[in-house]
Design goal:
The chain has about 300 residues and is α+β, with helices and mostly antiparallel strands. Helix content is about 35%, strand content about 25%. Strands 1, 2, 3, 4, 5, 6 and 11 form a seven-stranded mixed β-sheet that branches. A four-stranded antiparallel β-sheet has the order 8-9-7-10, sandwiched between helices. β8 and β9 form a beta hairpin. α1 packs antiparallel against α3 and α6 runs antiparallel to α7.
Length: about 300
């Protein structure tokens, strides 16, 4: 093959209780990368289209370009890649917009290798690309995009977490931008040890609840006591949006990634759709139009488009 196209879905980073280490993929939005194998031993970006067109064309400053540079260097490839990106996720949305381009490009480029790598082997290169946008190597967005579903993503390991198929997620994205670096800056300062203990307990409850299919455990744990209190003031209407989700029987609700999108988990699709409408109404009351996405928590993985 000389050319391949791949699609990477949106994602929800952190999932409230797993800052930088827990994420899930979400169907309904994503980025498309078209990658060509070229004779020149370099990586170049030929075009960026879609909802975002102002990203750097210099490969080393672009998440997709940097990931493929890392792939080339690690495998000592004698050829290079040309990338075209079609953006379907807005940057600064809290839905993994920078990670999706990176993962889609990697999956497409991997299909062009003489001996394609296992999907988990792409993870270090995805981390390298993600670091361009966020300034750190965290896998809570790229991990679930690579594997699909709910994923625990440490620095060197990806673990998919089983979740009941009926459980669904609603994500509502307001017509607003919150830059990841600004959202991270809000986290500076000291934290109480008791909050770390509480957050660890919440993460354990959520993971145990997912493994056991026990909605009660998840409901008891899906609450962020570390990050949400510092980022919520950056999102107009957040408290009302969260309460709207909880009023519609959400298992929990919080900020999606760095925000300003808000997500909520539900036990079935019908409740997720009703919750999403209520969350949109709450954003409208705060003066923001919004877009809603509803999908299974066991969301899709990135893949090559035939």
């Amino acid at each position: 093959m000389k050319q391949a196209r791949a699609f990477a879905p949106a994602s929800i980073g952190n999932v409230a209780v797993g800052f930088d280490i827990l994420g899930q993929s979400l169907g309904g939005a994503g980025d498309l990368a078209t990658v060509a194998r070229i004779d020149a031993p370099l990586v170049r970006i030929d075009a960026i289209r879609g909802c975002v067109t102002t990203l750097p064309l210099e490969a080393g400053r672009n998440t997709a370009g940097r990931a493929l540079i890392a792939l080339r260097d690690a495998l000592a490839l004698p050829f290079g890649f040309a990338i075209e990106l079609d953006k379907g996720i807005a940057l600064g949305s809290g839905m993994g917009g920078s990670a999706a381009s990176c993962v889609a490009a990697l999956v497409a480029a991997n299909a062009l290798l003489d001996e394609p790598l296992a999907v988990e082997a792409l993870y270090p290169f995805a981390l390298e690309g993600e670091a361009v946008a966020s300034g750190s190597r965290h896998g809570d967005n790229v991990g679930p995009m690579l594997l699909g579903g709910l994923v625990l993503a440490t620095r060197d390991r990806l673990v998919r977490i089983p979740v009941p198929d009926a459980w669904h997620c609603a994500v509502v994205h307001p017509d607003a931008v919150l830059e990841t670096r600004r959202a991270r800056a809000a986290l500076a300062g000291d934290y109480a040890l008791a909050d770390f203990v509480a957050q660890s307990a919440h993460l354990a409850l959520v993971l145990a609840g997912c493994h056991r299919g026990d909605a009660g455990l998840v409901r008891a744990g899906l609450a962020d006591v570390l990050v949400e209190p510092r980022r919520a003031p950056l999102i107009a209407g957040f408290d009302a949006v969260k309460q709207a989700a909880l009023a519609h029987d959400a298992l929990g609700a919080s900020i999606s990634g760095a925000g300003p999108s808000v997500f909520a988990w539900f036990e079935d699709r019908a409740r997720a759709e009703a919750g999403a409408r209520a969350m949109q109404d709450a954003f409208a009351a705060a003066g923001f139009a919004s877009e809603a996405f509803v999908g299974a928590i066991n969301g899709p993985a990135a893949g090559v488009i035939e």
